[in-house]
TrEMBL record:
Designated name of the protein: FZ domain-containing protein
Keyword Disulfide bond tagged: yes
Paired cysteines (S-S): C104-C128, C157-C218, C165-C211
The organism's place on the tree of life at top rank: Eukaryota
PROSITE patterns in the cross-refs: FZ
Gene3D superfamilies, sorted: Frizzled cysteine-rich domain
Molecular function per GO: Wnt receptor activity; Wnt-protein binding
Pfam families xref list: Fz
Length: 283
């Protein structure tokens, strides 16, 4: 009897240690979701069998550009809510909430045509079937649908007001950025995701790179100037390992993939920190 008890206790120890029976919520680290969906924690595995957020990242990466384009103001909530569902705890009870069926309907209606125009079909796994109606409660309700698609806000060569982007070589920027983002509150939320990485001091010019990516610099010769690829590669080389440690093993963000940015030898103007050859634009 004692032997059986010992075996049972050993089994339970390894079950809890491995996380199989762990009912706790985990912080959402995904850059396309974090701070942008109205809740902060989730629980995995999800309905697709993803056990780690790095798996969810790979799943959501092709959809991320459409979240930023604004084809539907519900797409981000739906896609994130389906893959990293809302998790809350109260006492010993864990509550999981998925998107409402209407959140799915509005997302699909708003974005299917945009995806098709770019040669992409609505992902088969993003199904509305099996989701609760909003009247049933306990699901992530949709935002009110916009009568017209969200139009970008054009801001050419204006003062950069983001707090982490102050005191850089260039302080004038342009929107929308290359990801079709133009709303400063949304961009600021994404910038704030990198504060932990900046606090690690992995590279002195991290903010110069990130600020130039999310709000391209405006200089005298070009109102839409991106950081040079060489700077991106240098920052990535110094910071990528730290990023993985700080953000739950996630890979280097897609928006900071260095092939997106022109090399210094390119015919397209790019900038590096403390570039004295370029005069700061003032208005």
């Amino acid at each position: 009897m004692m032997a059986l008890t010992a075996i049972l206790l050993t089994f339970l120890f390894f079950v809890f240690k491995s996380g199989v029976a762990d009912d706790s919520c985990e912080e959402i680290m995904l850059p396309m979701c974090r701070g942008l969906i109205g809740y902060t924690h989730t629980k995995l595995p999800n309905r697709f069998g993803h056990k780690h957020q790095r798996q969810v990242y790979r799943f959501l990466e092709p959809i991320w550009p459409f979240m930023d384009r604004g084809c539907s103001n519900n797409l981000r909530l739906f896609a994130c809510g389906l893959t990293v569902p809302k998790c809350t705890t109260k006492g010993n009870t864990t509550k999981i909430e998925l998107p409402c069926k209407e959140t799915c309907f509005y997302s699909k209606k708003g974005c299917s045509k945009d995806m098709k125009s770019l040669g992409m079909k609505w992902p088969r796994k993003l199904k509305c079937k099996g989701l609760k109606r909003k009247k049933q409660k306990n699901c992530l309700k949709p935002y009110p649908r916009l009568k017209k698609k969200r139009q970008p806000i054009y801001a050419y060569c204006q003062k950069n007001t983001f707090p982490m982007c102050q005191n850089l070589t260039f302080d004038i920027g342009t929107l929308p950025n290359m990801f079709h983002q133009s709303r400063e509150t949304e961009i600021l939320t994404e910038l704030e995701q990198y504060q932990r990485l900046a606090d690690s001091q992995c590279h002195a010019d991290l903010w110069f790179l990130i600020c130039g990516v999310f709000r391209p610099y405006c200089i005298a010769s070009n109102p839409f100037t991106l950081p040079c690829r060489e700077l991106c590669e240098e920052v990535r080389g110094k910071c990528e390992t730290t990023y993985r440690k700080l953000y739950g093993g996630l890979r280097w963000p897609a928006k900071l993939q260095c092939h997106r940015y022109p090399p210094a030898s390119s015919q397209h103007t790019c900038v590096i920190p403390r570039d004295t050859a370029l005069i700061k634009t003032t208005f």
